[in-house]
## 1
Amino acid sequence: MKATVILSLTLVFSIHFGTTANFSINYYLYTNENITQPVLLTPSTYYQVSIKHPTKIVVHGYYETAEKIWYQNLTNEYLLKGNFNVIQVDWSHLAFDNYKISSQNTQIVGSSIGNLIITLHKLYKLSLNNVHLIGHSLGAHACGYAGKKVKLQLRERLGRITALDAAGPLFEFPFRILQGISKNDATIVDAIHTDGGVFGREDSIGTADFYPNGGKRSQPGCNVKDLSYPLTSFEDLLDKKQFLWENVHKWENKTALVCTVTKRSYTYAEVYKKTNALANFFHKYDQVKQSDVILIGLPNVPEYPIISLGSIQAGLIVSTINPFYTADEISKQLVSCKPKVIFTYNGLYPTIKKALSIAKQAIPIVIVKTAVDEQLPRETIDFKSIIQGNTKPEFFQEKDLNDTIFLIYSSGTTGIPKGVQLTHKNIVSNLQQMGYSKINCLSEPNEFNQEVVPVVLPLYHCYGLIICLLNGLRFGCKLLTIPKFSSDLFLNVLNNYSPTLMHIAPPIFLFLLNNPNVSQQSLHNLKTLICGAAPLGAADLMRFHEKNDKINVLQAYGLTEASPLTHIQSSYITNGRKTGGVGYLLPSTKCRIVSIETGNELLANQKGELLISGPQVMKGYYHDSKATSDAIQNEWLKTGDVGYYDEDNHFFITDRIKELIKVKGYQVAPAELEEVLRDHPGVEDAAVVGIPHAKFGEVPKAFVVLKSHTKTKSTDIQDHVNKSVSHFKQLHGGVTIINKIPKSPSGKILRRVLKET
């Protein structure tokens, strides 16, 4: 390992160092001569740069630091080859803002690098021809600005600039806002394009441009999809005890949570204060200790994040349960996770008591009152009395990054529910991934504006809890809690609160599309809809956009075992919202597609099972090592979902392995037939399952919900499908008309219920 000389320059705009800004750019010099103590570079120590040796200046990209592994690998390779000055530029203080601002900061960084080169040239006769700048992503454009500055002041060009996937957004035609790198910035400008049309440039920018495999990220023979913007700053963020609250002082007087039924609300300052109060209560409560489980049995109410975050702050594990479960269902989770405290409300209290009796457990119960005049059941604790307690000093239980903080039970749509252990690292990583500028759809509040987000997805589910609630709190949104979905309540929220963004599942999308009371005025302030749980049909999307052409509809994919998000579409990328797709991988996330039959790796446009790897993948299933080893193999999570990626690395989910129907040895995807069914003008909703067949083994059977006032017959629907698909995909099991498709609260079709019908 070569020794390091640390060069730290206050950002300068004058060769005489007469003017400085209030931030710094750090330069790290690696040579074969400097092998001892790092030296801080000042004008009097520039001699550390050996003028007789070629100089390589390496510049990182957006959301990167000098700690990137490729920085060190590249440096080591140069020094193994001979004598070089390798200067690593760390401009991370300017690269961790939102993407647009960081893009503009490349001009500042380029100016600073240019000043350094000009100074070394004037004072020590540094040969400009021996200077080679190497920049990745936004760093490539910083190199271009450095070259422009040198040429402007010295009337001479640098020897060479290498652009590694120069950033595309804001720099690429026809959306060019900033000038960026060009072929005139050095004698030789060579550019390597492997991310064109996504986050990199497609157009020629150098004297020599290289396009491996057409400049796309799909490399021949390579099935592992990994975006070119990995985030390595998670560990730094994990050290922040108040990751969610680090900016709360900016909007402490803004409304954080509102109950859309009772109208009770909390500001951000109040939520923060009450969270601390609950943590302090648990710190002094002798019936719990670190890593004990608390159980939340509540609908969507404003107190949900206070209980969750206060418990985690106290070092406890938070488990959630469906408040509409039966006593038998709740008792099974009680036996599994053995909570020490239960938070619930009067409406669920009798069921909780019955479940405790079945489980033969006696556990303290804390009641969250949802109305002022509610009576407290005997032998229960009033939640309000706890959170009115002392909030000073703030108590934070020290936790390891891999300690479990959430224990979320899978829905059980395809088997017995299992407790998914999500760690501190998992959750912070996924929140940070969602905040990446080319994905994030939320803006922080200011004096005049605040994002308004209805919390309609259930908070006991990972989708609602992490993506909607916690991510919304992180960005200072006004969150509107909806305890239970009803048409009237939801319409009231749309018309009276003017949401700006909504996280939804397909049933809610169909409600927005088909309910005659949802007008354009109802959605006049809505900018973005993000839909998960199941694919949206092409015909439904087209109809929605015909009515609401200014609303971005983004589809996403994830699973509880991945905290939950792994893929999402982007409105910032050309072709970033392909119909039927779920978008691109999140930062630091990898995905492989493997054959269901052989396990062999597959390439673009070949369907197989998705395997996921990333910092958001769960620790494992609670007290179930076998299920964990079956699900996670060599750090790859087996999703059980079938899909593929195309030549642009856009992913598509087609079905679940366990839901595929095998007809005469052929695999039939229910989702494909369901989309054909919904294309019929008389069909409101549809589901397809496989049923036994004496000759074919299995055949598809459809269950459909008709649109109101239609006289469509089941035979008409069957003929519609059979004309559209191959013989083995046809509905040989027939069509049954029903009133409602049974679905889980997250919007997934409960096929096992239909099979029992």
## 2
Amino acid sequence: MLSKWQIYQTLSRAGLGSAAIRLENHFTQKYDFADLTDESIKSYSEPTDEGYVLIPLTRGQDGLNSFRYCILAHAFRTRGYTPIIPLCHADLDLCQRKTCEKDGKAVCDVCNYAGRSLLSAFGLEGIPIESLLSETYGAPEVDTTLETYRGISVADYAMSSTRRFLLRHSIDFEDSYHRETYLRFLRSAVILVDMCEALFEQYPFDAVLAHDDRYVHGGIHLAVAQKHGVTSYSHALGRREGTILFGNAGNRSSLPFFTDYDTLQTELAEPLSASEERRVEDIMTARTEGSDVRINYSARTNNSFDSSADCTVGIFTNLIWDASLEVEELVFPDVLDWIDDTVEHVSSVDGVQFVLKTHPAETKFGTDESVEGRIRDGHDPLPDNLEILSPNTDVDTYALIRDLDAGIVYNSTVGLEMAYEGVPTIVAGDTHYRDLGFTFDPETQDEYFRLLGNIRDLEMDEEMIARAKRYVHVYFEQKHVDFPFFKTQSAGDNEYFKVEHDEVKPGNENFDFIVRKILADEPVLR
């Protein structure tokens, strides 16, 4: 007997996929989002003659991301800016909605229908990507030697997207599935570059907003905007529940966690007020308890690692396929080299117990390249002074931090949390809190290994601890902007709240602030 998905696939191949989805929705209301908005939003028709904002939804069925795009589009619309919203319908060769089990037009039919239904609930319309390209358009041929296209580094976005799709960092072009996946993302990147160039010829954009800035479906739009000198911002859900983050794509990193260096230096030069000190304490207590975090990664057991050594050092790895790990010119451009070289080196550090804690997200989101497995397979036997904690360990990250004498990270948020607690922290990769005066930030591998060899001697002075606390206030308080339209039940499971026009229209302090800062090309810091 055919599964529902197989039936969808058959109907989609016959050109009946959208009709089948409409019929299903008629009986199930699975893709009916009318209850998410009020009538004032659905019927909004005020003039929008102030300018244009590119808000590339692209993937219609993208959960909270799609919901966030629509809310931001309405915020700009109510302030006189026309949102231009490209929407894909099988126009791109590959995206994260597809998997090896569900890779066909049926996926695209469902995704597009869900996107159009959500846009309709907001009184918005998407523009088919196909309509933005010429009738005779055909994507150029691509191969693994293609690095840039029309001035955009398409290979970087294709590689990041491939790693995320395959849930692994190591990509082998000798593997036919790896290579074909990469080439499909590369073709998608090229198509999006051509689409964006067509859009920029047609509209004098005032701003561009996109999420997933390191991946094909978001990063390409921001890169083309930067090429044309147009204000562009990445955005993402915050680390705290019910918040949103914005990052200027012109920063040293387009990731939404980053703020420009000059602004941070100004902020960190000023001592915190008594009320700001209390707010920082409240935020960090809530993170420790898990009461104000969007996704709980740490075990809440209060269990630590039992070490009898005089000096215990924590090493914290990342979800290995995450694009935030991809840097070009720092100490270890490849995170796997950092892991391997660090494991090799720890055995030469006398009198120190190292505890390497792998990221819990490996269990929550999955991985095809286990950090623990890689270390155990590649370093047999393990150094006597190294203990590895699995992603599902019952060791509580925050209890462990309290027992550490020093810490090492590539770019994990744990590095900031250790510095806040006064734990000397070495940063080996690129992160939003690097080079701000409260972590140890080597510029070369020789310097990194010297710090590692002398890690028992590292200390944080009072000014370093004070700067760490000030940055916690900047990052977790000033940079996190209230966005109270959802609640995260667990990773991938969210509750949506109805959006009222009065919560978004001009006069709402929150959205007045967001729109004003973006149009002024200023840091979105409260």
## 3
Amino acid sequence: MGDDVLEDIERQIQEINSKINKLSSQREELYRLKEQIKNKILEDKSTALAQIDWNKKEYSFSSDLDTCLKNTFKINSLRPYQLPAMNCTLSGTDCILIMPTGGGKSLCYQLPALISKGVTLVVSPLLSLMEDQIMALEKLNIPAKMLSATSSKEDVNWIHNFPATPILGVTATATSRVIKDVQKILKIEGCLILKASFNRPNLFYEVRSKPPVQKEFIDVLSKLLKNDFKNQSGIIYTMTIKDTEELAKDLKNAGIRVAPYHANLDAPIRSKIHRKWVSGEYQVIDII
């Protein structure tokens, strides 16, 4: 009798396991279906946003935007996709803007910040980019502060939870997969996506043979900086920190206003070099 009871219990367990497996499969299928429908809804939302004429100047804030552009930034006209990005976020809609380096992405959040209430928070991956932003804003007498890993606890303490606010994600390059990942991370699936042209007719590339002897190389490079690129600023990239230091020393001896810039320098020193380069005190920074 005991064996019969055990067999019956085992049979019931197997039946339950079978039902559990079946229900689990059904649940997984429902999850997949839910995700598909959710993605379709978000794609439709993004498509609908793309159909809106974001380039018009008939919004309630359009006049303030134009006035601030001309009076504060001293700019008379906008580049392609700048106005749509601004109109989108000022209307409370999330946006991802893909625009080449130098295309004017910074203005797309700086200008709206000046005509909006509250604080605009800009998250940047590089300290040098943050410093560039601050220096540019300081020249325009626009109040801005920077927080980084080098900031004190007191500086950071003012940051709290921000309420639901429109997000503008900007980048120079991004694949479709990366864009989707960014949308998920920022929780802005279904946002407007703006893509500017990547044609850069102002860029010129030239490859020259490097002289095998270091002295000859320094002579050629210094003449190039003094003649072809006189009164212009530039960046020289090297392979190692040692190369950076040695090249900067050789160019300095050749009469070039140059400084090395690399991760082994303390943050205040890097910032000082950066500011001197931007101001024109250094013509070139030698960087790894």
## 4
Amino acid sequence: PLVKTLGSEIGARLFLTERLNASLVLWQLDIDSELLFVGDAGNTEDTGVGSERHGLELTAYYQIGNSWSVDLEYAYANSRFETPIDGFDDIPGALEHVVSGGIGFQRGNGFHGYLRLRHFGDYKLDSGVDAQGSTLLSARLGYAFNDRLSVTVDALNLLNSNDRDIQYFYESQLRGEAAPIEDRHFHVFEPRAIRAYLEYTF
């Protein structure tokens, strides 16, 4: 269902030099009734409780010479129910800290690529249970033969991390168990994968 939502943000971007620029955004969001995902049922439900969020986003981009570039992004969010549910005001699944950054290059001879890191900090699940943070590293290397033909190789989950990609906390009952049990339910990152692409533009 649609509910009344009020949001606002203010920000600024600074071009510190010809090669370096940065931005800062402050924001807030008030929602009259928060929707939560119910993992066991696979759908969302209306809590009937309002929520308040506020946070900031920082970005910085730096050009190194004519070929290399570096970027860094950080986001912080404080998310709370207006009225605690079961004694907890943390919104389950709401991330608090997110960091991403990378280094990339684009050569005049057709080669291009990047190395990119993404980190989610610990956050809260239902009933105040903590969810573990996760870190993922990926890379890309490509070559453009001309304006029409290029080849790209992606390395996903380069470090073969088994961090948890998705996490929930709810009751479930396996066959043979006498009663439902509250526990974490999660899916880890897909194993390291190499993917190659050949692209031709008509």
